[in-house]
Specification:
The complex is a heterodimer of chains A (504) and B (347). By secondary structure, chain A is an alpha/beta fold. Chain A has 2 domains: 5-243, Rossmann fold, CATH 3.40.50.300; 263-503, P-loop containing nucleotide triphosphate hydrolases (Rossmann fold, 3-Layer(aba) Sandwich). Chain A contains 17 helices and 22 strands. Chain A has helices spanning 43-51, 73-78, 96-100, 116-129, 145-157, 180-192, 206-212, 235-243, 299-306, 329-335, 344-348, 355-359, 376-389, 406-418, 437-452, 464-470, 496-503, and strands spanning 5-14, 17-27, 32-36, 58-63, 66-68, 81-84, 109-110, 113-114, 167-172, 197-202, 215-220, 223-229, 263-272, 276-284, 288-292, 314-319, 322-323, 337-340, 425-429, 456-460, 473-478, 481-486. In chain A, the strands form 5 sheets. In chain A, strands 6-9-10-3-11-12 form a 6-stranded mixed beta sheet, sandwiched between helices. In chain A, helix 8 (235-243) packs across helix 17 (496-503) and helix 14 runs parallel beside helix 15 (437-452). Chain A is globular, with a radius of gyration of 25 Å. In chain B, helix 3 packs antiparallel against helix 11 (235-260) and helix 7 crosses helix 11 (235-260). Chain B has helices at residues 19-26, 35-54, 61-86, 94-108, 120-143, 148-166, 177-184, 192-210, 212-222, 224-229, 235-260, 272-282, 293-312, 317-345. Chain B has a domain at 68-291. Helix content of chain B is 70%, strand content 0%. Chain B is an all-alpha fold and 347 residues long. Classes of the chains: A alpha/beta (504), B mainly alpha (347). At the A-B interface, strand 8, helix 4, helix 5 and helix 6 of A face helix 9 and helix 10 of B.
């Protein structure tokens, strides 16, 4: 059978990375195609290219044998391609029926007037198709998250009225926020539509992909490294393929004498409803502890909670030997905790201000007179000191921060925390995200030096290579729990496959 | 953990056939589920009950009539601005439009200053002028991507300035008896202005519930990016909201001139704040997508009952503003409370 969608030599570049490197994909009629790979392997970029969300830089896309340019979601929809988004794309203040037909031509309104009955009838038919017991006139904001996911599915399935023949439905991590019973319901729907739709399914959970897919592609670093049919593979092989050519360099750290330093942070039974379900974690003075996990593993929420950014976090925290109640960032900073956010541009730096102003943002007043009056001179001397120590590349500390490269911006954010005289623990949330290899090396070096001088570091890594070369201890998280711990990486160095297995 | 999807039936009912019935239902006036939904209704009832106890005059037919009469002009303005607010924008230029419309009508209709005598055509001209003014607001906001706050702040002052320029050396007296009759005549004991305001409210409810414009106003207020991503040409809807707001402001100007019988460039003063407060008190959020025309009407009545009742019980007129301000604060606190919780739970 001829493929419904063919991709040939698809290339997509982002600044600093090649997200997709000459990828070929065939999507056959009536099949469920699974895509697996680590974070950043290019899965999402690939489906976005098919959905018309992001046009590839090179390569060609054929739909039902005809070469097409998919420049917008509307163009894709007109060819019968729809995407169920990871973040939902429904409007809560409208009814289910309106949402289903929001992005489609419909005879339910004429000259701007709604014909509600017609609209509801049409929506009812769409909902019936997947046997969904939701009233078309219900407001979306009154639905549960799982119900909305189903409405999203109905919305996408309605594209079949726009085209003849097979339709294509793309799922980008549809299960990451669903419970088990909801996932089963979703899978039933996917199997049900199998007779008239081809499905591409992305999930970070290996067992789910194997359960639902007829065929899987394995992606690694933007390349398609393998293709397997269901039954012709097993998880072990796929884990190996996912790791791919990615190998950690051999500059791992010296073994630290475990137990020689006192524990700085002890967390017991940490819970963040919906994200973290009971985590125990300790970080010693001068220790670098890494967390790694796929999306929605809970690592981010754990770190944000520790910095007081999630009021619903519960559990016991002891910091520097005393029980700590961290109610907000101010309390965290007072204890000596700093947090380098993943969203650097939004949460980490103040655009439009200079390097010096950004560095002095949090602790500038500590260098002022009597803690109330700013001492510019002292503040700037301190800022310059840290800029030099971190080898910041800029024309001077009065340069505006947005003119710097990503790596240098990150150094500024790092310097902001290092100015704190009381700093004991630094939380790094994806510290190397979006950095080129050179900048990454600089940031690594800085982190190592800081740890050597006694600062405790808790960081969330992006890649295996990163955590293995930087951390003393590693905890792998999945679905809000620590699934495996490697307390001393230098003494016992785990296989990459072992880590990946605990992640997915 | 979520319950299985199949077992959950979303709250709903059969859709009634009649347009009017449907319209009231669509107006987001569904079964009240949280505090914010029924709080304005309760507040109105509470105020009415309180004033009835405090003053024997409050509950008289004459006083209820007076409240309706006083509510008419604020209601017209507030219904118009509700669409702008639903979309998450704001229209500050209302007082400017009202001023131009008021002074314009007093010069276009038979009057003591100019020799013009356009009568109803004068009214039509002024209303079209208000519509165009709003259109310009919307176009500036949408095409130049300027924040509506800034656009309408500047056109507010432009409107006031134009009105002042139009003002001749002597205050124009309206001599067209048909216009003056609008506030003097009574139909079933109520002046035509009240009927017009009721008509405006009805049109507002229909627009909100029965048209693509109305429904998309909610969508735009909630997530403009998503609406654009859905391939919807939404510029026209944003411009339309501003045009409606301009039109209703001009209509208010017409009635203010008819009521006072003279052209006055400051006639619209003091109508912007109550209009916005009415929307907020009724439960329409300034951030858009929540509330609606009926909620706004409720807010208008709450403010009017408050004002009326405080006069009746002999409260210091100066303290009225304090009470009004406090009411708004409380309304926003109550209206926003469930939302705070929601932001924490909903993704």
């Amino acid at each position: 059978m001829n493929p419904v969608v063919e991709l040939r030599g698809i290339v997509k570049r982002f600044p600093g990375v090649v997200a997709l490197d000459r990828v070929d994909v065939d999507l056959r009629p009536c099949e469920v195609l699974g895509l697996i790979g680590q974070n950043g392997s290019g899965k999402s970029t690939l489906v976005k290219a098919i959905a018309g969300v992001q046009e590839p830089d090179e390569g060609e896309i054929r739909v039902r044998g005809v070469r097409q340019r998919l420049a917008s979601p509307q163009m894709a929809a007109s060819l019968g391609i729809g995407m169920v988004h990871q973040e939902q794309s429904l409007i809560g203040s409208l009814t289910v029926a309106e949402n289903i037909y929001l992005d489609k031509p419909s005879d339910s309104y004429r000259f701007g007037w709604y014909r509600w009955r017609r609209l509801f009838d049409a929506a009812r038919r769409q909902l019936d198709k997947i046997e969904l017991d939701i009233e078309p006139d219900a407001l979306v904001s009154t639905l549960t998250f799982a119900q909305r996911q189903m409405v999203e599915l109905a919305k996408v399935l309605a594209v079949e009225e726009l085209v003849e023949g097979q339709i294509v439905i793309l799922f980008d991590e549809p299960t990451s926020v669903l419970g088990r019973s909801d996932i089963e319901a979703l899978f039933r729907q996917i199997r049900r539509i199998g007779s008239r739709a081809s499905v591409v399914f992305i999930s970070h959970r290996m067992d789910e992909v194997l359960e639902i897919s007829d065929r899987v592609y394995v992606l690694s670093d933007g390349e398609k490294v393998a293709e397997r049919n269901r039954g012709a593979t097993d998880p072990d092989e796929l884990y190996k393929l996912m790791v791919g050519r990615q190998r950690a360099p051999d500059d791992a750290r010296q073994s630290r004498l475990k137990g020689s330093e006192p524990q700085l942070l002890e967390m017991r039974g940490i819970v963040v409803p919906g994200h973290v379900h009971g985590v125990d974690l300790t970080v010693g003075v001068g220790e670098i502890v890494a967390l790694i996990g796929v999306q929605a593993s809970g690592a981010e929420e754990l770190c944000r909670g520790l910095f007081g950014l999630n009021e619903r976090m519960a559990g016991e925290i002891s910091f520097a030997g005393h029980p700590a109640h961290i109610k907000g960032p101010t309390a965290a900073i007072a204890l000596g905790i700093g947090y380098l956010p993943a969203e650097r541009k939004v949460e980490g730096m103040v655009r439009g201000q200079t390097i010096a102003e950004n560095i002095a943002l949090t602790f500038g007043l500590d260098f002022g007179r009597a803690g109330t009056i700013i001492d510019r001179g002292k503040e700037r001397r301190e800022a310059r000191l840290w800029a030099d120590r971190l080898k910041l590349k800029a024309t001077g500390i009065d340069e505006r921060i947005e003119r710097l490269s990503g790596g240098n911006q990150q150094k500024v954010v790092l310097a902001k925390w290092l100015m704190g005289r009381n700093l004991k623990l630094l939380i790094l949330d994806h510290p190397t995200r979006g950095l080129d290899p050179g900048a990454r090396g600089d940031v690594f070096r800085a982190i190592r030096e800081l740890a050597a001088s006694g600062l405790a570091i808790l960081f969330i890594g992006d890649t295996l290579d990163e955590v293995l070369s930087l951390a003393d201890a590693l905890h792998v998280m999945r679905d809000g729990r620590i699934t495996q711990s490697f307390p001393d990486l230098a003494a016992h160095r785990p296989h990459e496959e072992e880590i990946v297995r605990a992640m997915v | 953990m979520h319950a299985p999807v199949e077992k959950i039936v979303a709250p709903s009912g059969q859709w009634p056939g009649g347009a009017a019935e449907a319209a009231t239902k669509i107006g987001a006036m569904r079964v009240p589920k949280n505090l914010a939904n029924w709080a304005p209704m309760a507040a109105l009832a509470l105020l009415a009950a309180g004033f009835s106890l405090a003053s024997s005059q409050f509950h008289t037919a004459a006083n209820l009539q007076a409240i309706l009469e006083a509510s008419a002009v604020p209601l017209i303005i507030a219904v118009g601005i509700t669409f702008v607010i639903l979309q998450g924008s704001i229209d500050l230029s209302i007082e400017g439009v009202t001023a131009i419309a008021g002074i314009g009508l007093s010069l276009l209709a038979a009057n003591s200053s100019s020799s013009l005598e356009f009568g109803w055509w004068g009214v039509t001209g002024v209303l079209v002028g208000g519509l165009l003014f709003g259109l310009a607001n919307g176009a500036l906001h949408h095409l130049l991507r300027m924040p509506s706050l800034i656009v309408t702040l500047s056109t507010w002052f432009i409107g006031l300035g134009v009105a002042a320029l139009l003002f001749p050396s002597r205050q124009p007296q309206v001599l067209d008896q048909r216009l003056l009759d609008l506030s003097i005549l009574k139909i079933a004991g109520i002046s035509p202005i009240v009927y017009v305001s009721a008509a405006v409210l009805t049109v507002g409810v229909v627009l909100q519930g029965m048209t693509r414009f109305g429904r998309l106003s909610y969508a735009i207020g909630e997530d403009e990016r998503l609406v654009r991503m859905s391939g919807i040409a939404m510029g026209r809807h944003k411009v339309a909201a501003n045009a409606i707001s301009g039109f209703t402001a001009a209509l208010a100007g017409v009635f203010l001139t008819c009521q006072s019988g003279v052209g006055n460039p400051t006639a619209g003063q003091g109508f912007l704040f109550p209009a916005i407060s009415a929307a907020v008190i009724g439960g329409t959020l300034l951030s858009g997508a929540r509330g609606g025309v009926l909620q706004t009407a409720l807010g208008v009545f709450i403010l009017q009952v408050l004002e009326n009742g405080m006069v009746l019980v002999g409260a210091n007129p100066l303290s009225q503003q304090i009470v009004e301000g406090a009411t708004i604060t409380i309304a926003v606190a109550i209206g926003g409370y469930p939302l705070i919780r929601k932001l924490r739970v909903v993704k």
